[in-house]
Amino acid sequence: MARAKSSFRCSSCQHTVAKWVGRCPECGTWGSMDEAPALAAVAARPGVSLARSGAAALLPTTPAAPITEIDGTATRAKPTGVDELDRVLGGGVVPGSVVLLAGEPGVGKSTLLLEVVRRWASRGPDDRALYVTGEESAGQVRLRADRTGAVHERVYLAAESDLATVLGHIEQVRPTLLIVDSVQTMLAADVEGVVGGVTQVRAITSALTSLAKASGIPVLLIGHVTKDGAVAGPRSLEHLVDVVLHFEGDRHSTLRMIRGIKNRFGAADEVGCFELREDGIAGVSDPSGLFLHHQADEVSGTAVTVTMDGKRPLLGEVQALVAPTHNPSPRRAVSGLDSARVSMVLAVLERRHGIKLSDREVYAATVGGMRMTDPSCDLALAIAVASAGKDRPIPAGTIVLGEVGLAGEVRRVTGVGRRLAEAARMGFTRAVVPVDSGDLPKGIRPVEVSNVGDALRALRLR
C-alpha cells in the first residue's frame, strides 16, 4: 500500500495545501496552516490510488450515508405566514437556508420583512425572530412597526453593524428566524476592506451562511442593487445563498412584485404580488383585476390580453390612441410596452394590411403600470391600434393572444390553456388565438386565426 501523504489546512478559511507554508495562499493569514490528519491511500477505482494521483485523503468529520437513510423531514419548508412570499419561496423558508431579498431603496423591503417577523413570532411561544438593522436605529424601526402593526413581544430588535456583536445577540436571543438589514452595512472587524466592499460582503455572507447551516436558523438578508438593477456586491454573493429574490415596483404605483431568480428548494420563476399601503404591505392573491379598466360602455382602442409572468397568468389591457397630425414626423409614445415591438407591429399594420399610420400620431400604453414584454401581447396591440384608427370598439368579453411576425402571421404562444383558464375565471367568453393552440378550457369560445388580417375580420375591424 502506498504511503499516506500529509496535508496542511488553514484554520481561518479551511484552504488545504500539500506542503506547509507560513502564510495561507488563499486568505493571506500568517501562521494558520496546521497539519491535517491523513488516511492511507484509498483506491479511487481498481488499480488507481489517490496517493499515486497526488491527492491527499483526509478523515471525514461526517461519514457518507445512503441517501435512503437521510432524514428529509427536518428540512421541510416552514410557512412564514405571508402567502405571496411563501408562493415564491416554494412553500416557506427551509431551516438553515439563506435568502437574499434585493431591491431598490424605498421599494418596501424592510416593511415586508417586518410583516414576516410579526407573523413568524405569532406562530407560537417557541418562535422568536431577531431583526438586525445596520441602517436605522431601533427606535426608527419601532416607529415603522407601530405604523404597520408589526409589533410583537417575540420580535427582537438590534441596531448593530458589527458581525461579532450580531453573533452575540443570536447567542442571547436564540431566534428561530434571523433578518439582517442589510448585508452591505455589516462589518467583520477581522477582515480587510471597507463596509459594503467585495471582501466584506463575501466574508459577512459566508459567516451567516455557516451559522445558518450549523444552527438550522433560516436567515433572510436584505441586499442593495446597483443602478442597473443587479445585486450589489460580488457575483459570488448570489452563489453563496440558497435563494435570490428581486423586489421591484414603480414609485408611482402601489403594486410591488417579488420575482424568484434562484431557488434551491423550488421553482425559480414564481412571482408574488403585493400592494404597498400607508399602514403596511398586503399580498394580492388575484392581481389580474389591477390591470383592467372596468367601464360600462365599449371604447375603441382597447384590447385585453393575458401575459405570463413566470408561471402566473395576468390579465392586462392594452390601450392605443391614433390622432391625425400635420407634423412631418408623427410622434410615437409608448408606456409599459417594448417600443421596438410597437414599431414593428405598426409597420406590419401599414405595410401588410393597409392601415395608414405614417401621417398619424400613435400612443400605446398599458393600464395600471403593468409592464408587458411578452411577445404574446403583439396581436392585442395590433387590434388596439386598428380599433383606435377605425374608431370602432371590439366586442366585449374578448381576449386577444398571439405573437405577430414580420409577414403578418400570428404565431403560437406557450401556455394558452392556462392563460384562457384565467380569462374565463375573470368572465371573458371569447378568445382570438393562433391556430393549433391545443386543448383549450371550457367556458370560453376560441376564434383561431393564422394572420392579423383574419383577426381584424373576426373582430369587424376590416
From TrEMBL:
One of its GO terms (biological process) is recombinational repair. A motif (RadA KNRFG motif) lies at residues 262-266. Residues 361-462 are annotated as: Lon-protease-like. Keywords: ATP-binding, DNA damage, DNA repair, DNA-binding, Hydrolase, Metal-binding, Nucleotide-binding, Stress response, Zinc, Zinc-finger. GO terms for molecular function: ATP binding; ATP-dependent DNA damage sensor activity; damaged DNA binding; hydrolase activity; zinc ion binding. Pfam families: AAA_25, ChlI, Zn_ribbon_LapB. GO terms for cellular component: cytosol. Belongs to the RecA family. RadA subfamily. The middle region has homology to RecA with ATPase motifs including the RadA KNRFG motif, while the C-terminus is homologous to Lon protease. NCBIfam families: sms. PANTHER family: DNA REPAIR PROTEIN RADA (PTHR32472), DNA REPAIR PROTEIN RADA-LIKE PROTEIN (PTHR32472:SF10). This is DNA repair protein RadA. It comes from Rhodococcus xishaensis. The lineage of its organism: Bacteria, Bacillati, Actinomycetota, Actinomycetes, Mycobacteriales. The gene is radA.
